[in-house]
């Protein structure tokens, strides 16, 4: 996978000369590509379209194949329709295949038709956890030559693999496709920021607490576009799973990646997860021979990690009457009371934390202790457990903790991203109506990696990230405003107050439970037939032919076309604002499109699941329910003002009018435009932003616009000025 570099560049790399960082451009050819189904389907669509183009030009379409290994893991499509019952897993899986059958037929065709392309079926796990536990080799071998494993992925949290010492990060779809076809990624030699870890985590804290502290610190330091390297004596106190949690969150602190060294803990993890002995020995031998085996300055003392959160309800949402209570009747479950800060969703989900046995076992032990004391979760809290791989269920079963979690309503609902990607599906109508009618600020608490506005659920304005044990704790409390140090979770069977400290498991208890329940055999059995273990997937008929037979009436897969929109946005516009992956709103252009084609509301699914169809995605661009366009002040949602008529309309409808009128359109944005992922669906003829997130950089201005900011931020430019200067 090597490339010939100029002598000065290779010398600078070997010497580690800092002066070249950020200045010298280098080509990077990763060893492989990983994708999830939301962002992977468009890439496969493009490969299929390339075959059509080659055939139309008289060439051989069978020659169009990825030139390096590509793995697509289907993990983003399962939704939490059913929860709180043991049958939830099977029922949600059946609903997933019903909703996505056309997409899955297309991917089955791709799996059979393309070389170097594998698909990990649904209900196997989350892409980054599957990559960590199974796909990654740390050291690759090809034709008798050994070289470090490396990759790019079509998901920003690809960086999770950095915890294993593997170079990798998320890229845009166009970049990933170029890599698949054998092209390098050109990048500036990155600057490296070292984070020295010292000490050990105190009792009552988890790797999640460390992560959130590091995120805050590195955001303040400024590491956008840089490599972060963790090192120091504190490494010995972090398990591989803890390291993976820190690496997973690199996009949240702005870095390209957060890399850990390969050491004894790395080798132990490879052995634990069922990698063959020869693989483990190869990693040790190669890394030692290359001087890369660990025997990289901000300092973080692990003992200083925080253990609670709550004040942001007041600080951000200006909630004044925290004692306001609203009675809601929930049928057989009886009446409940809601107020500001009520936790409506408590989800143990996401590869960030479900890949960590200590965190998951800790949640199970906390649930066991709570159930033994007679504590219960309020009826209005929607609880769910979505493990990142089937191995998690295996060791929770072995530890006897599955029943404890189920006793509190944390039944397994699927093996995928679920709530983390916005697949929580609607809350009970009575709950949603009470929240809307009384303007309540209600919450979700999830063990995920992102809490962007409108991402988790449309009803929950406040969304908090927490470790799996804390998700259980907040579910028991039923509110995010609790002070765990001073307020009890409830009362036990004898009327005694029960505080969180009374039921929180010790580190020794967690370590003992993990040691007793987790074995290499579990990984070997679950991943031994990873590509064929799902019988429902295997039963899907595979379309025949080298070229894909496109269906004109399809709302899932079609040949992509360009799109243009107009918006004046502020700072920190995330990719969830640009291209939401969540639910399709009633009354939106996307919803109207599906309705016009006979798709019932219950089958709309999400924008992410329909990324293979450009018609839906054009209508979904900038359709986030919380996006704020300064052309329509005081209004949230995907609306804009058509110029010069001044008519308020949807961004999609305005874009179509501009195309019909032959008027190019532009997006104006402030700092950190495009922080996050899903870059390819927000492309414009022209884009003006003071700083774009890394995953937006593939969108080049054609031609580039050079506005005069007059030394001011984007927010200083009013809609009137936009109309005058570029309208």
From TrEMBL:
Residue ranges that the Swiss-Prot or TrEMBL entry lists as coiled coil: none
UniProt keyword Metal-binding present: yes
Aconitase/3-isopropylmalate dehydratase large subunit alpha/beta/alpha domain sequence ranges: 24-298
Aconitase A/isopropylmalate dehydratase small subunit swivel domain span: 593-676
Biased composition (Basic and acidic residues): 695-711
UniProt KW keywords: Iron, Iron-sulfur, Metal-binding
Cofactor needs: [4Fe-4S] cluster
Keyword field contains Secreted: no
Disordered: annotated segments: 683-714
Any Pfam family: Aconitase_C
A GO molecular function held by the record: metal ion binding
First and last residue of the signal peptide: none
Family: Belongs to the aconitase/IPM isomerase family.
Designated name of the protein: Aconitate hydratase A
Lineage: Eukaryota, Metazoa, Porifera, Demospongiae, Heteroscleromorpha
């Amino acid at each position: 996978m090597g490339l010939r570099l100029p002598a000065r560049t290779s010398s600078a790399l070997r010497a580690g000369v800092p002066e070249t960082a950020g200045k010298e451009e280098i080509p990077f050819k990763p060893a492989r590509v990983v994708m999830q189904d939301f962002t992977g389907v468009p890439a496969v669509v493009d490969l299929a379209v390339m075959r059509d183009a080659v055939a139309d030009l008289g060439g051989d379409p069978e020659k169009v194949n990825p030139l390096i290994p590509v793995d697509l893991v289907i993990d983003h499509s399962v939704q939490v329709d059913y929860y709180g019952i043991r049958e939830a897993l099977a029922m949600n899986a059946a609903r997933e295949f019903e909703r996505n059958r056309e997409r899955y037929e297309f991917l089955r065709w791709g799996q059979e038709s393309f070389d170097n392309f594998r698909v990990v079926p649904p209900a196997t796990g989350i892409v980054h956890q599957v990559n960590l536990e199974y796909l990654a080799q740390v050291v690759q071998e090809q034709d008798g030559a050994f070289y470090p494993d490396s990759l790019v992925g079509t998901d920003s949290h690809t960086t999770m693999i950095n915890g294993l010492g593997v170079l990798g990060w998320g890229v845009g779809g166009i970049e990933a496709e170029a890599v698949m076809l054998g092209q390098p990624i050109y990048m500036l030699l990155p600057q490296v920021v070292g984070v020295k870890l010292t000490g050990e985590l105190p009792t009552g804290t988890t790797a999640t607490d460390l992560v959130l502290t590091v995120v805050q610190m590195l955001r303040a330091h400024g590491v956008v576009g840089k490599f972060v390297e963790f090192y120091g004596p504190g490494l010995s106190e972090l398990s591989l799973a803890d390291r993976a949690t820190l690496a997973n969150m690199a996009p949240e602190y702005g870095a390209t990646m957060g890399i850990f060294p390969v050491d004894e803990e790395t080798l132990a993890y490879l052995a634990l997860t069922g990698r063959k002995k020869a693989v483990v020995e190869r990693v040790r031998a190669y890394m030692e021979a290359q001087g890369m085996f660990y025997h990289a300055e901000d300092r973080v003392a692990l003992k200083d990690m925080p253990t609670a959160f709550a004040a942001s309800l007041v600080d951000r949402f200006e909630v004044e009457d925290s004692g306001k209570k609203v009675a809601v009747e929930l049928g057989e479950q009886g009446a409940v009371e809601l107020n500001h800060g009520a936790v409506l969703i408590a989800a143990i989900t996401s590869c960030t934390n479900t890949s960590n046995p200590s965190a998951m076992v800790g949640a199970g032990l906390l649930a066991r202790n709570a159930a033994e004391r007679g504590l219960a979760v309020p009826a209005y809290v929607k609880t769910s457990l979505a493990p990142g791989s089937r191995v998690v269920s295996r060791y929770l079963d072995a530890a006897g903790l599955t029943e404890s979690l189920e006793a509190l309503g944390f039944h397994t609902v699927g093996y995928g991203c679920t709530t983390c990607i916005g697949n929580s599906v609607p809350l009970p109508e009575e709950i949603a109506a009470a929240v809307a009618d009384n303007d309540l600020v209600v919450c979700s608490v999830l063990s995920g990696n992102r809490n962007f506005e409108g991402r988790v659920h449309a009803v929950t304005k406040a969304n908090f990230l927490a470790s799996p044990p804390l998700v259980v704790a907040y579910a028991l409390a039923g509110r995010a405003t609790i002070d765990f140090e001073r307020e009890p979770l409830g009362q036990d069977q004898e009327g005694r107050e029960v505080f969180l400290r009374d039921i929180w498991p010790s580190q020794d208890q967690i370590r003992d439970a993990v040691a007793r329940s987790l074995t290499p055999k579990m990984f070997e059995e679950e991943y031994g037939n990873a590509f064929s273990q799902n019988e429902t997937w295997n039963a899907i008929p595979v379309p025949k032919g080298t070229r894909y037979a496109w269906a004109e009436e399809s709302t899932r897969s079609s040949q992509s076309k360009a799109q243009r929109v107009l918006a004046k946005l502020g700072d920190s516009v995330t990719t969830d604002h640009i291209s939401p992956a969540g639910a399709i709103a009633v009354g939106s252009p996307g919803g109207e499109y599906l309705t016009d084609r006979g798709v019932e509301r219950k089958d709309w699914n999400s924008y992410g699941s329909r990324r293979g169809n450009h018609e839906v995605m054009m209508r979904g661009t900038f359709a986030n329910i919380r996006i704020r366009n300064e052309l329509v002040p005081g209004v949230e949602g995907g609306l804009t003002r058509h110029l010069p008529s001044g008519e308020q309309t949807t961004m999609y409808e305005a874009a179509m009018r501009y195309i019909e009128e032959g008027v190019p359109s532009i997006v104006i944005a402030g700092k950190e435009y495009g922080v996050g992922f899903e870059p390819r669906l927000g492309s414009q003829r022209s884009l003006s932003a003071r700083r774009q997130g890394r995953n937006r950089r593939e969108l080049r201005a054609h031609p580039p616009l050079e506005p005069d900011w007059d030394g001011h931020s984007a927010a200083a430019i009013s809609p009137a000025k936009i109309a005058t200067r570029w309208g």
